[in-house]
Amino acid sequence: AAGVIQSPRHLIKEKRETATLKCYPIPRHDTVYWYQQGPGQDPQFLISFYEKMQSDKGSIPDRFSAQQFSDYHSELNMSSLELGDSALYFCASSSLWGRAGNEQFFGPGTRLTVL
Amino acid sequence: DQQVKQNSPSLSVQEGRISILNCDYTNSMFDYFLWYKKYPAEGPTFLISISSIKDKNEDGRFTVFLNKSAKHLSLHIVPSQPGDSAVYFCACRGSTLGRLYFGRGTQLTVWP
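^ inputs. structure came back:
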């Protein structure tokens, strides 16, 4: 079965640079979530989109922005990168239909390292 | 504040025995509860879930129990296998399509 695809898998950036992370949800899933997991931490919710509209916003810095496109893929744009942004970034997708949006299915993550 | 807590950072179990992973939550508005398994360098993999209207859900070797009055859920794995060795995250949700709140995870090691 098709899974959530994230690219790139690894990304190394310098401080103050920008980064763009991409997420391709499971086909026919209409909701995308972004989570950040620091070393030894639990995943923290950043932001979500349902049908291309922002549906919820968590602890996402103002330096970050995200959107969901007409094909339902999503991009997380990160500017003025800081050392503390180094983390694993997970994208998850879900669908309101089928199992009523109960389960979220995660991609493999993008490991961002800021030097 | 941490709304979902997994107080045991690690658990070691012999192959064939039962593994019991515990999770406590504080928010009575949570309506759906999930367990994820995570290997290093991979994303969390959905394992099993339970709605707040149930107290037990079973799927093969995995059973999740929910005690709403105690705000506690547990994951039972019987029999445990070495391939079950991974980090297990408990996650809770407050609404349909809502964000997940995760615990810190429990590292399960199943030894032969």
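Chain A touches chain B through 31 residues (CB under 8 Å). Chain A has a mean pLDDT of 93.
thumbs up if we can close this ticket
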